[in-house]
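Typical record is below.
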Amino acid sequence: MEYITSAKNQLVKNIKKLAKKKYRDELNQYVLEGEHLVEEALKGGADFVYLLTTDGGLIAYRELIQHVDEDKIRVLASHVFEGISEIPTPQKIMAVVKKQNLNSQNQSYRKILILDNVQDPGNVGTMIRTADAAGFSHVILGLGCADIYQGKVLRAMQGSQYHIAIEEHNLLTFIPEQQTNKMKIYGTELNKDAFDYRHIEMSDSFGIILGNEGQGVSKEVLALTDANLYIPILGQAESLNVAIAAGILMFSL
């Protein structure tokens, strides 16, 4: 266990750098902040690099901290901890952990949520958490999606990255590969050929694609789908938030 009292400490500087994707990729690490996220990381078998807390945190979170090797624990002065926190009222516990491998391909695909260029961190995190809650086996991130290791995505996921498989793929090759294995892939678009989602009978394994907040699913990706689905709008709203739409579909199909 090591005590750190200066914001100029090199470890503190390195942790602040992890707010940027460039350094997360370079160091293969990211930061989890708050009691719940640290607890989920421990339960999920995350590879801890450091656990950071304060004198008060040592007492408040002693049951969590006892599960981390002592040589990985750093106790920061309160002002130093607050300087690296992304939360207005920090809980005084955070962890630096190793990133997961998102490039591996798992053959046990069942129900998969596919995201095409979904850029808002809150939407990406919420959809991953909802896929977890809805019993989906995988979330596939296509090109242009928000980095799941940034703070806003992590807080929206609430630890679901340890419950559900998340992978990154080029959708233009991934989708045909799954169709070769007899999996139906459905896009989401409102057009004359699309089907009301309530009238589709799904098999045990399928993929559903949600697209960019403003542009929807790209034409190149839509061209690969087996069919496209839509959610009827009953009121005057022009559209649904993409994360809300994803939730309706995942719990209904």
Notes: Residues 58 and 82 are 16 Å apart (CA to CA). The chain has two domains: 2-98, 111-252.
